[in-house]
């Protein structure tokens, strides 16, 4: 998970997202348009059952202009120059909630040189995934390919061995069905990556975001649109300028093609549902649009390795927040849940990462990163105490299978959030400190696909194309095709293992969908099979586990960090592992 989470901007809603009677004319929105400095953006959630035309009229009467609408759940992106816009809609029976949204890429006259607090926070949170990235120790040389391993780098995929998603395990029984669609709701997928391209659907993939150059404080978010080849703020639906989504996609469905790695379900089809900004934010409107689009085109499984910004915890009754902030967070919860419900009703199995903060989500926590995006000048994250009633979305939404992370020893990863009743299942997400001494070993994280363009941009390749950092691996096949892979860790890496298992379950037990084509299987059935076939793991002896990490510092010293997490529950279901560690082989051998 984000920094393990991310946010987005305004794009025209396709016919799949809104019925013709509700769809706005194409002239209603210009993708990537600049907003004036006096213009604010809001998300307006219509009341359940409200007449859309009447709701639009109410918005216009309050001084708002609709630039985007998701007719499937009744959520509109609205701009207004009227400072009293939100107040004017308060108490209107047609409107259930109003939340201030991000800016639409307004470029201020002056910009401060220092990075914003939100950006520093994002960098710090991403450090969980990137920890040890500049460690100069070398990976072992690639040994000869054993006969029982289908792919050249399979010996480095301890994660697949942990859940029996191997050539001698689940792949002997079921490798997936191309009619099964897995939507990756993330920062994008590099559709040209040689170990993704065979399973990638450009036709179905969509980008629901527009790059945001600067925030309301004038600090860089995604950077100037002029940096894009076509000077547009909208990226194609087959690129990933962050690296997160590509890694997730390969874990799910890298094909068996004699190159690099294999995913959990190497024959299913990947659909890029991009909602994440290049900078790593995930905003509400793009997430909602991606979920409803996925439901409408017949996607079977979606992976959501993020939380919805700008609030990590969404609280409706927290005294630490103003009434306006509580109303905004309530709108996020309601709108996201409507989209999750919509997708679930239409056969989408929903998988989400648990989070990288090491929080027990069933207890009181300290949120130091919300709101993490400056939608108005001067806004900065603050520290607030959040009760367990506050929700991390989509992770804690209804119908969502939430996934915690394990390391190579099967212990819960040091960073993984947890909680009895919060975690549904566990899956390998890596733990660089899951070593006998507590010293960092990057090879104990997860290896998956990495866009070559990013490796080049970041200076990680030599002139001859070989990696110059030990966290990047190159593999070339007999035809001379080369691909790149990198080591990352996080619950973002755990969730796609579970999503791959879900895709295998649909492939194995799904029935032909007479209405939309492909296969279909009720999401509740998928969840039941996944949980019932998971490997049960009890809480550690004594109920708690103490993590001792020897963290390398830039000056060459080592800082010892000690944390303790308490596990509650039984062997059948507990706060570290939920119903157990997913197992691909058991899942495809299950009897419904």
TrEMBL record:
Residues 135-144 have a biased composition (Basic residues). InterPro entries: Peptidase_S8/S53_dom, Peptidase_S8/S53_dom_sf, Peptidase_S8_Asp-AS, Peptidase_S8_Ser-AS, Peptidase_S8_subtilisin-like, Peptidase_S8_subtilisin-rel. GO terms for molecular function: serine-type endopeptidase activity. Residues 1-23 form the signal peptide. The keyword Protease applies. Residues 178-536 form the Peptidase S8/S53 domain. Coiled coil: none annotated. The keyword Protease applies. Residues 125-134 have a biased composition (Basic and acidic residues). One of its GO terms (biological process) is proteolysis. Belongs to the peptidase S8 family. This is Subtilase family protein. It comes from Thermopolyspora flexuosa.
């Amino acid at each position: 998970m984000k920094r393990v989470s991310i946010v987005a901007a305004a794009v025209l809603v396709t016919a799949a997202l809104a019925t013709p009677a509700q769809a706005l004319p194409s002239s209603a929105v210009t993708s990537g348009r600049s907003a004036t400095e006096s213009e604010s953006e809001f998300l307006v959630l219509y009341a359940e059952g409200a007449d859309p035309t009447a709701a639009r009229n109410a918005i216009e009467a309050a001084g708002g202009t609709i630039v985007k609408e998701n007719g499937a759940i009744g959520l509109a992106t609205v701009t207004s120059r009227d400072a009293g816009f939100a107040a004017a809609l308060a108490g209107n029976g047609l409107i259930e909630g109003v939340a201030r949204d991000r800016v639409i890429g307004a470029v201020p006259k002056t910009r401060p040189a220092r990075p914003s607090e939100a950006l520093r926070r994002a960098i710090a949170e991403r450090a969980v995934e990137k920890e040890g990235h500049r460690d100069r120790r070398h990976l072992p040389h690639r040994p000869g390919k054993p006969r029982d391993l289908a792919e050249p780098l399979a010996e480095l995929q301890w994660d697949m061995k942990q859940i029996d998603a191997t050539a001698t395990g689940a792949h002997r029984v079921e490798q997936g069905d191309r009619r099964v669609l897995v939507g990756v709701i993330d920062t994008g997928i590099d559709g040209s990556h040689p170990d993704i391209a065979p399973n990638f659907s450009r036709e179905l993939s969509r980008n629901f975001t527009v790059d945001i150059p600067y925030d309301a404080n004038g600090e860089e978010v995604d950077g100037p649109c002029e940096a894009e080849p076509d000077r547009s703020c909208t990226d194609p639906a087959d690129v990933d300028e962050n690296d997160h989504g590509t890694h997730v996609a390969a874990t799910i469905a890298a094909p068996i093609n004699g190159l690099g790695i294999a995913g959990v379900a190497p024959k299913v089809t990947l659909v890029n549902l991009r909602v994440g900004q290049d900078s790593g934010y995930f905003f509400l409107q793009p997430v909602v649009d991606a979920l409803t689009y996925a439901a409408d085109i017949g996607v079977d499984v979606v992976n959501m390795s993020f939380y919805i910004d700008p609030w990590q915890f969404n609280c409706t009754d927290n005294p630490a927040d103003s009434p306006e902030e509580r109303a905004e967070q309530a709108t996020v919860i309601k709108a996201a849940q409507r989209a999750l419900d919509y997708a679930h009703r239409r056969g989408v199995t929903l998988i989400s990462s648990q989070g990288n903060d090491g929080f027990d989500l069933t207890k009181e926590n300290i949120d130091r990163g919300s709101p993490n995006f400056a939608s108005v000048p001067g806004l900065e994250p603050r520290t607030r105490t959040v009760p367990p009633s506050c929700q991390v979305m989509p992770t804690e939404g209804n119908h969502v299978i939430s996934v915690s992370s394990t390391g190579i020893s099967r212990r819960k990863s040091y960073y993984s959030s947890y909680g009895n009743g919060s975690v549904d299942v566990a899956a390998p997400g890596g733990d660089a400190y899951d070593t006998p001494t507590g010293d960092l070993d990057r090879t104990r994280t997860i290896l998956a696909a990495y866009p070559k363009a990013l490796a080049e941009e970041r200076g990680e390749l030599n002139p001859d194309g070989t990696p110059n950092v030990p966290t990047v691996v190159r593999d070339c096949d007999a035809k001379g095709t080369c691909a790149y892979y990198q080591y990352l860790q996080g619950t973002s890496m755990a969730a796609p293992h579970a999503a791959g298992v879900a895709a295998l379950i649909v492939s194995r037990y799904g029935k032909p969908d007479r209405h939309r084509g492909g296969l279909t299987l009720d999401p509740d059935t998928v969840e039941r099979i996944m949980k019932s076939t998971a490997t049960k793991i009890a809480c550690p002896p004594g109920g708690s586990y103490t993590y001792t990490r020897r963290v390398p510092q830039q000056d060459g010293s080592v800082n010892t960090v000690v944390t303790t997490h308490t596990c509650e529950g039984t062997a059948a279901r507990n706060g570290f592992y939920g119903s157990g560690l997913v197992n691909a082989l058991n899942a495809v051998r299950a009897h419904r």
